[in-house]
Structure to design on (368 residues):
């Protein structure tokens, strides 16, 4: 049975305080900004390099995002070059996906325990309506750890043609050839780390409806009493969200950007949006051939689907560790597309590269 449209559920990530490594030991379950990446137990510690200047990339975001009908733990790691001339270039960003079975995690913790040779493969058609809950199921280590189903069963996908296998091997090799093992930690830029908390965007809509209802009651009161109390201000000092949006629209005259601003106006501090299988929120007009630009999965040759995007409010959080200086990262949004089948080989030690698309911000100071 096919899953219902994923667009109905959009999750937004918010900064939830600094992650102090002296007080809290993060793991692959942790959703965070910056810091060192927490790889799954079997995954090799690899640090990608900038495709433009060759410098090692800084770890920007880590998301724990298992799929509901999958037996795998699953992580996405985004990296970017903090160089002043690099952050806006697509070749200066990398996104890596890694997966691991619970049995493999247990075996890594207990070396004498053997790892099963086979595991039920993931079928995209078996996703249910909670497949995109981004770890929000109850019972997780930190409230986000749901979605890993060890007992999940799925029909085996058709084997790829020999030609597809050959292309896949070449593609994966070429994608990972500039990843380096054993990179000295001193050489890798580290950003200050912050927890990411999550909420359902539809909850914001309820708050907005309440505000509109209150404004309507106020206007009725003013009309009935013949007095002018003033407009409700839901943004504190400086005017309402609607007023700020109108000013932005007049300033830019860009329908795409105006739509972007209106969509995020209930919560402009959001740093990440997650809606696997949904539609990204572009900050400016995307290329007309956007669908063709999103390349096929380098591992299985299948198509990719939108999964998450980084938002402009994240930029002000990207500061170098033990330093007050901000990193040189500037962007409007970074849109991530991942393998629709989330393909994976049991026992693999190498993270797979996915596709990201970077848009510059037409007015970055609005978010600082």
């Amino acid at each position: 049975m096919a899953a219902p449209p994923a667009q109905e559920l959009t999750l937004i990530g918010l900064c939830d305080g600094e992650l102090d490594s002296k007080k809290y030991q993060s793991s692959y379950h942790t959703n965070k900004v910056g810091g060192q990446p927490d790889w799954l137990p079997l995954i090799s510690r690899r640090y990608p390099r900038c495709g433009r200047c060759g410098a090692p990339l800084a770890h920007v975001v880590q998301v724990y995002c298992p799929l509901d009908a999958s037996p795998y733990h699953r992580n996405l790691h985004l990296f970017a070059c903090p160089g002043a001339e690099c952050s806006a270039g697509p070749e200066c960003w990398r996104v890596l996906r890694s997966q691991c079975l619970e049995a493999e995690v247990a075996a890594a913790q207990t070396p004498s325990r053997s790892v099963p040779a086979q595991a039920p493969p993931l079928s995209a058609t078996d996703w249910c309506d909670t497949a995109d809950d981004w770890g929000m199921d109850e019972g997780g280590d930190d409230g986000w750890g749901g979605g890993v189903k060890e007992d999940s069963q799925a029909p085996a996908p058709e084997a790829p043609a020999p030609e597809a296998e050959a292309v896949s091997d070449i593609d994966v090799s070429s994608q990972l050839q500039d990843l380096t093992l054993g990179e000295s930690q001193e050489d890798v830029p580290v950003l200050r780390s912050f927890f990411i908390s999550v909420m359902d965007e539809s909850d914001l809509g309820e708050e907005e409806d309440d505000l509109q209802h209150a404004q309507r009651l106020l206007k009725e009161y003013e009309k009935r009493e013949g007095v002018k109390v003033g407009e409700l201000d839901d943004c504190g000092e400086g005017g309402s969200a609607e007023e700020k949006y109108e000013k932005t629209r007049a300033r830019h005259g860009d329908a795409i950007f105006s739509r972007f601003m209106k969509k995020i106006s209930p919560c402009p501090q959001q740093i990440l949006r997650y809606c696997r299988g949904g539609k990204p929120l572009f900050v400016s007009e995307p290329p007309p051939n956007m669908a063709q630009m999103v390349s096929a999965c380098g591992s299985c040759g299948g198509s990719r689907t939108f999964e998450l995007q980084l938002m402009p409010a994240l930029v002000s959080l990207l500061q170098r560790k033990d330093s007050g200086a901000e990193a040189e990262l500037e962007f409007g949004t970074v849109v991530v597309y991942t393998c629709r089948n989330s393909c994976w080989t049991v026992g693999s030690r190498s993270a797979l590269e996915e596709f990201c698309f970077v848009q510059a911000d037409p007015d970055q100071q609005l978010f600082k």
